Amino acid sequence: MNRKPNLKWLRGIDWDKGSQHDLAVVIAGACLLLIIASIGFDSLLREEEKPLPDFALIKNVAERKSAFFEHMLPFVEEANYEILEQRDDIKRIQTAFLEGRRIGKRDRARIDSLLEEYKFVPIEEWSEETFLHLLTRADEIPPSLALSQAALESGWGTSRFVKEGNNLFGMWCYEPGCGIVPKRRPEGKNYEVVSYDNPRDSFLAYFRNLNTNRYYLQMRAIRRSLRNQDLAFNGIDLAEGLDRYSQEGFQYISKVRSVIQSNKLTRFD
User: Fold this and answer.
1) Of 42, 29, 33, 44, which Cα lies nearest the Cα of 5?
2) CA-closest candidate to residue 215, choices 253, 249, 191, 242
3) Residue 228 is part of which domain span?
4) Among 8, 69, 4, which Cα is nearest to 268's?
5) Closest CA to 81 of 32, 22, 138, 140
6) pTM
7) Are residues 82 and 118 in the same domain?
8) Is residue 206 part of a domain?
């Protein structure tokens, strides 16, 4: 999902001469980009605000599954697109750092911001390991894995938590009033199920959880190992590290893989 603007029209402009014609081209192009960006942003907002369909009304199982994947895949693609942009920045700044070049304030702020986003302890001085650890966390989640877990955790989009709080992954919170109280919550427990403004926020929280939570160290280690070998990875591979996502443990891994395989979800990876 590439939302980068096409700036090829800027090539060939004589910036040194600064002719009126070239200036007019730049101004016209800038105005056009602003219009396109505005339309795209409005469209994205409308998509976020649009409620999910009532999947329970789709009686045909195959059609329900197809509709579920069709609605959820764009959220996965968008989250991965943002992560890949982060990785590009990290690698570019990593190269400059390893070559001993000066790191500007903007790039330094970028890395510090990503370290905070991916929940690293604040550090005064970077090292080679700083970038290696950051790249281990700032990485893609295969669409097949995200879609299969969304299907399992949300009952294919039919659960109460999806309908009332756009929560597709059963994510919890622990402050009173932070979300939706489960009807079958054991006595003495204080957790709630997070309520999100839109499905997109639920996917972003899920990505952040897998990429930062200590419970999924093994998943990230599998992904890093495959990356280091220049091998592609998919949801079948990374599911191996999700035994702590559910109380079902390794049985949960089997369920995730079964959904991936029976619905041929690796075609999205």
Assistant:
1) 33
2) 242
3) 142-161+198-268
4) 69
5) 140
6) 0.81
7) yes
8) yes
